[in-house]
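Teaching soon. Invent one.


***
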Amino acid sequence: MAEIAEGGSGGGHKGGKKRAKKLSTRVDMTPMVDLAFLLLTFFVLTATFSKPKTMELTFPAPPPPDQKPDEIKKGITFLLTKDDRIFYYEGEFRAEANDKGPKTEIQELDFSQDSQKSLHKYLLEKNKPMHEQISALKAKHDNNQLADSTFKRLVKERKADKESYTFLIKTDDQATYKNVIDVIDELNVNVVGKYVMVDIMKSEMDLVLEKTANN
């Protein structure tokens, strides 16, 4: 801490005038340094650092060159392009009509919440059985009829059920990241368990270009 040092009086001679004592101060900074380190340690240990926000995406492994990709049963494909436009078709894509069915026609949805062609309403309707099953499980969990681990396991099994839809997200080179995130958010809100991002095929892109050119 601060110390006060007293200097000599300078008035030791007989008959001389008595001079005032000179006082000098010296501040000991050692306790302040200790306090600064303590405060720094406290803030480092208690501070919350910002974490990067990430989103998990699932990309299927590409099939071998000589192997035909497996057909996805109950598949729904979203095609994203410029101007916040999103198209979709259900089932297997057919560039031309064949013995399995007619040529694929794409329909358009939008990102609003209340229109008749809303992506939200479409997913809500398509995933209605899943909603009902998970809501029933949640009600049992809330009433303490299911343990946490059992509830999570059953929800995971419901989402992975073979009878549930698999959603494929495809984009051209003019789609925005925002639209991709919006689609994934809607899938998560509607408790969709199976969705992947895959490359768009040229025949699919041709249909999108045809639609956007006419409108």
